[in-house]
Amino acid sequence: MSDPAAELTAFMARYEQANNSHDIARVVPLIVPDAVYWFSDGSYRGLEEIARAVERTFEAIRDEVYAIRDLEWVVLGADHAVCRYRFCWTGVVDGQPRSGEGRGTNVIVKRDGAWKMLHEHLSS
């Protein structure tokens, strides 16, 4: 793709789909090893910590459907980009239907020819 915004928007759609698969093996390849994630429940540095945190979410929220909306590209470079968006989720927590929403900011970098997450900050 020659349009950086379209290429990165497609990456974010793949990231959303990977998370909705609830399969950490599909999520991990989209994150750089030295990434840092900030979630409402804590901060996670490095792929191992991030993977454990995401897996805990998969376990805590059954049948989760996660959606990214109102995606805006704040920075678009040849090898880095920053976006902000709103997210929402629905699922089952402790046997009860639940939902939530919040805001996200991501820093995405191109490494070895592929876009990957360097930083994610989600807050509700």
Characteristics of this structure?
124 residues, alpha+beta, Nuclear Transport Factor 2, Chain: A, six-stranded mixed β-sheet, 3 helices, 28% helix, 55% strand, globular
Structure characterization notes:
- The chain is an alpha+beta fold.
- A hairpin with a 2-residue loop joins strand 1 and strand 2.
- The chain is 28% helix and 55% strand.
- It has helices spanning 4-20, 24-27, 47-60, and strands spanning 31-39, 42-45, 62-76, 80-93, 96-111, 114-123.
- A six-stranded mixed sheet has the order 2-1-6-5-4-3, covered by helices on one side.
- It is globular.
Identify the CATH class: Alpha Beta
- Treating each run of at least 4 consecutive H or I residues as one helix, how many helices? 3
Strand order, main sheet: write it out: 2-1-6-5-4-3
Radius of gyration: 14 Å
Q: What sort of overall outline do the alpha carbons produce when their principal axes are compared?
A: globular
Would you identify the CATH architecture? Roll
Largest sheet: 6 strands, mixed
- Structural class computed from helices and strand pairing: alpha+beta
Q: Which blocks of ≥5 consecutive residues have pLDDT under 50?
A: none
CATH topology: Nuclear Transport Factor 2, Chain: A
Helix and strand string, N-terminal first? HHEEHEEEE
Report the average pLDDT across residues. Answer: 96
Strand segment count: 6
Number of domains: 1
Residues in β-strands, percent: over 45%
Helix content: 25-40%
Cα separation of the termini: 33 Å
